[in-house]
Design goal:
Length: 322
């Protein structure tokens, strides 16, 4: 099976990773770059009930995490066309937890990265936390803005941060978006109403891709170490193991405006009788088909930046190796 799919107006590459499920990369819609890469680095599970130290002394209740990749794959990765699009899917069994990962590409510009959660390990006290990582490149890596919908309008986010879904959304249900200065194209992100979702917006650094483990030891020391050379950042990420979770360990106070932004979408799915449950956002590309340019958020600079800078050479080299 080829790892390049060209259908429904989309052209994208895919590969099965060792721990982050199916990764899609170099995704174009109508001949224009939308996505550098996206993956599902972690799905953690924890026990939400209050523990009584007298009846549950020392009992461990998570979070649990098992990599989704070659070792947990059940059957082949499948590519299937449907009316108006194409779907890439794979099934994983991580102990008693079963997952079906889906990437659905629609001819109207929608991209649906979904995860169905099921299996004998489901428990009425469990919460499931799938983590998606997106590196969108609208017409190139830089000159983008990240915005969130709040107080009835779109607001520019100027520095890195954590942005939970508050219940507010625009008329299309969108809560977060990435906007390209030059073309006015945008990526809209609409959460599932039951995902209890949050987005982390982080300035891209080479070497700051998803670590193998979802946990780190100390946010401050990691962030300071990551300011060094790429090789040093890689050593830090390979060595940490403690209490601070990724992607929170990456969040600092670096500016986002006009730079290369990485977005993490994290869902918090609480078990109920409606399971199996399919989590994940709906992502839509706009501005690639002659639509009017979207208004930039309320804190936007009046000066639009011209030109598009490509990815750093190190990042391009990394993708060629992949």
């Amino acid at each position: 099976m080829t790892n390049v799919i060209n259908e429904a107006g989309w052209k994208f590459h895919w590969r099965l990773t060792e721990s982050a499920g199916i990764m899609v990369y170099l995704a174009d819609f109508r001949g224009r770059r939308v996505l550098w890469e996206a993956s599902l680095p972690y799905v953690t599970v924890d026990h939400q009930r209050d523990l009584d130290p007298e009846t549950d002394p020392g009992e461990v209740h998570g979070p649990w995490w098992v990599p989704l990749g070659q070792r947990t794959l059940q059957g082949p990765v499948r590519v299937q066309s449907f009316r108006g699009g194409v779907e890439l899917s794979a099934q994983f069994a991580a102990g008693p937890y079963h997952y079906t990962q889906l990437w659905r590409f629609h001819d109207d510009g929608r991209l649906c990265p979904w995860l169905t959660i099921y299996g004998p390990g489901m428990h009425d006290q469990h919460t499931y936390h799938p983590h998606w990582r997106f590196d969108f490149d609208l017409d190139g890596a830089r000159d983008d803005a990240f915005e969130r919908f709040e107080d009835g309008r779109w607001l520019r986010v100027e520095t890195e941060g954590w942005f939970p879904y508050s219940g507010e959304a625009d008329d299309g249900g969108n809560v977060w978006r990435q906007v390209d200065f030059g073309s006015g194209a945008k990526i809209n992100i609409r959460p599932h109403s039951w995902d209890d979702a949050e987005v982390f917006a982080i300035r891209y650094h080479d070497g700051e891709w998803a670590p193998f483990s979802p946990r780190s030891s100390d946010t401050t020391s990691i962030r300071e170490s990551l300011a060094g050379a790429a090789s040093q950042r890689r050593k830090v990420l390979d060595s940490v193991a403690g209490s601070t979770t990724f992607p929170a360990a990456y969040v600092g106070d670096e500016p986002l405006d006009g730079d290369d932004v990485t977005l993490w979408y994290v869902a918090h799915v609480h078990f109920d009788q409606s399971f199996p449950y399919t989590a994940g956002p709906s992502v839509r590309v706009e501005g690639f088909g002659g639509e009017p340019k979207p208004a930039i958020g309320a804190t936007a600079s009046a000066k639009a930046k011209a030109g598009k800078a490509g990815k750093p050479a190190a990042k391009a080299a990394k993708k060629r190796k992949a």
